[in-house]
Automatic annotation (TrEMBL):
PROSITE patterns: PX. GO terms for molecular function: phosphatidylinositol binding. This is Sorting nexin-31-like isoform X1. Belongs to the sorting nexin family. InterPro entries: PH-like_dom_sf, PX_dom, PX_dom_sf, SNX17-31_FERM_F1, SNX17-31_FERM_F2, SNX17/31_FERM. Keywords: Protein transport, Transport. The lineage of its organism: Eukaryota, Metazoa, Chordata, Craniata, Vertebrata. Gene3D superfamilies: 1.20.80.60, Phosphatidylinositol 3-kinase Catalytic Subunit, Chain A, domain 1 (3.10.20.90), Phox-like domain (3.30.1520.10), Pleckstrin-homology domain (PH domain)/Phosphotyrosine-binding domain (PTB) (2.30.29.30). Residues 1-107 form the PX domain. GO terms for biological process: endocytic recycling; intracellular protein transport.
């Protein structure tokens, strides 16, 4: 998740005093509005727990601020939120989450009430969940899982997403909801009938499919999303694969369908809408996909030929999202914010180059790149842990076999020579403190 404060507004309190309200955006959409004093209190509470782990908080000013000082404070508050949210220990802490829930509620002032939230499945069908308007995304996901009889152990592999309906009954993914975000409030604040909440898998490692497919309900969710992705052209099966998939789809063989789908190019990738890329030449129309191993970019050249480039995730050093223009709260609007995702890529021989993609889904692509990085880090940690566990066992076995050998008749001449060498060394004061019993 990525916080920004691209805009501020001045308001007047009941006593006629003026104060600044900061517009806080989460992944490109207006999340809440808050005052400096709100964030100051948050920092005080967090600092009691995390101390010096927190970044420096912008100082108070007791006199009127100049425009330069006000702009500096806006940037410092933005950087503060970004650094705090990047620390998983802090961003998942109750104080931080409850503060953001409170700010979202106070900003949009929707009454807290019992309601029915419609949650889309990947194939467009709906699940009606009985929730409270103040329930965060994590709680709503639990309710949906309970209603669909999905096991809790696979819940970590799915998330709620804000999607927008487009032509042909298809949906464009706009953002992944943060665990503390209020789906009811986020959806209502959009004031767009085409926007809905959808449940989708939120991982890229194809090996995780095996775990999810162990549950019949998990298998069904994966199947629905795979069929939807196939219909929208997210992956490119060969004619032979497509024929097999259609046959398995018609006969309702979901597991077999997924097993064939896993062999298809770009299976499990997230595909963004048509965008503009500066590779291989500036202003190239492109289709971008993010997968477990790569960022796949298919660009259309001036000759109308397509050129496909694979940027390996392991060779991406860093990336960033830039906001261009004035935000209106809906990045998809022409007069809304313009976004671009840039990443630094190694072409070999320590040659680094920045690749820029202009798309209103820049924050979403960034979110998925973070997810891929987290999955790789978790897998590497697991492998290292297994190695650390196995290595002592190997060493113990080697020591045991050595001592067993030294007790055999074959080792007695060797042991006798070692003892003789130690006695001679002791006489010459070479090895002090070594006794025969040590051998």
């Amino acid at each position: 998740m990525h916080f920004n404060i691209p805009a501020t507004e001045e308001q007047i309190d009941k006593l006629g005093g003026r104060f600044v309200v900061y517009h806080v955006y989460l992944d490109g959409f207006l999340y809440c509005k808050m005052r400096y004093s709100d964030m100051y209190k948050l920092d005080e509470e967090l600092r009691r727990v995390f101390g010096d782990c927190l970044p420096t908080f912008p100082p108070k000013y007791y006199l009127s601020m100049t425009e330069t000082m006000a702009e500096e404070r806006r940037l410092l508050l933005e950087h503060y939120l970004q650094k705090v949210s990047a620390n998983s220990s802090i961003s998942t802490y109750d104080i931080f989450c409850m503060f953001l829930i409170k700010m979202q509620q106070e900003t949009f002032k929707f009454p807290i009430k019992n309601c029915v939230q419609e949650i889309l499945l990947p194939d467009g069908h709906e699940v009606r969940a009985d929730i409270q308007s103040s329930d965060p995304a994590e709680r709503v996901l639990e309710i949906v899982f309970c209603k669909m009889e999905l096991p809790r152990q696979v819940m970590a592999y799915f998330s709620l997403f804000l999607v927008e309906g487009i032509n042909g009954g298809q949906y464009s993914v706009l953002k992944k909801l943060a665990p503390f975000e209020l789906p009811y409030v986020s959806l209502k604040s959009m004031n767009d009938e085409q926007c809905m909440i959808m449940i989708r898998k939120s991982y890229f490692d194809p090996e995780i499919d095996r775990t999810v497919m162990g549950s019949s309900c998990g298998l069904n969710l994966l199947y629905l999303q795979a069929v939807s992705d196939m219909e929208t052209g997210c992956w490119a099966p060969t004619n032979e694969q497509l024929e097999k998939l259609r046959l398995l789809q018609e006969t309702g063989q979901k597991k077999e369908f997924l097993e064939v789908a896993q062999q298809v190019k770009h299976y499990g990738y997230m595909q963004a809408e048509a965008c503009i890329c500066d590779h291989p030449v500036p202003n190239s129309p492109a289709v971008v996909r993010v997968g477990y191993e790569e960022i796949n970019c298919c660009t259309k050249l001036l000759s109308n030929q397509a050129e496909e480039t694979s940027f390996e995730i392991s060779k991406v050093r860093c990336w960033s999202v830039r906001l261009l223009g004035t935000s209106t709260g809906n990045p998809s609007e022409e007069d809304g914010m313009k976004l671009e995702l840039s990443f630094e890529y190694c072409y070999g021989n320590d040659t680094w180059k920045w690749i820029t993609i202009h798309t209103h889904q820049a924050f979403l692509l960034s979110t998925f790149m973070h997810q891929v990085g987290a999955e790789h880090a978790a897998k590497n940690l697991e492998m290292n842990s297994e190695m650390q566990i196995e290595m002592p066992d190997v060493q113990i076995k080697k020591k045991q076999s050595f001592f067993q050998y030294m007790k055999t008749d074959k080792a007695r001449p060797i042991l006798t020579r070692i003892k003789s060498a130690v006695r001679r060394s002791k006489e010459e004061n070479v090895f002090e403190g070594i006794e025969d019993k040590d051998l």
